[in-house]
Amino acid sequence: MRMTGWIVGLLALGAVGGMAYIRLAPSDPARWHVDLAAGGWPSNAHVFCIKPGARYDVQEDPQALLARLDAIALATPRTERLAGSPEEGRITWVTRSALMGFPDYTTAQVMPGPGLCVAGRQRFGSEDLGVNEARIGGWMQELLGLEERPAMTGF
Q1: What InterPro entries does the record point to (predicted)?
Q2: Distance from the CA of 70 to the CA of which of 43, 83, 93, 142 falls in 20 to 30 A?
Q3: How many domains does the chain have?
């Protein structure tokens, strides 16, 4: 019985250590604040692009859209800017899940051609259960004044 107690204690300590790592691991801007035009996105990244004057009848300059998107993102619970600025033309935010603190990274960038592109991806695991798509869709819905969330468009 004593050995079982040690095993349970070690497993609990390992679980607490894993949870602490997920919540406290630093986010390296060099790894996450990447140029969207360079590509190399994982297959499970969620991407949405807005072309001025095209779909959704957006006439606004992509730089102005990025500034408005920054305000929307920063109003989202548990979201903070990791790197970039509207003036730079690229911003990366980190949003953490409420319970475990899993970080998800969303990068928005003004790009020639597509206008403004937004891409979201998770740090841990291979599946995000749709949270990045839902977050980006919600941000785009608010940014574009849509009645419902738009579908991801890709580059």
Answers
A1: DUF1499
A2: 43
A3: 1
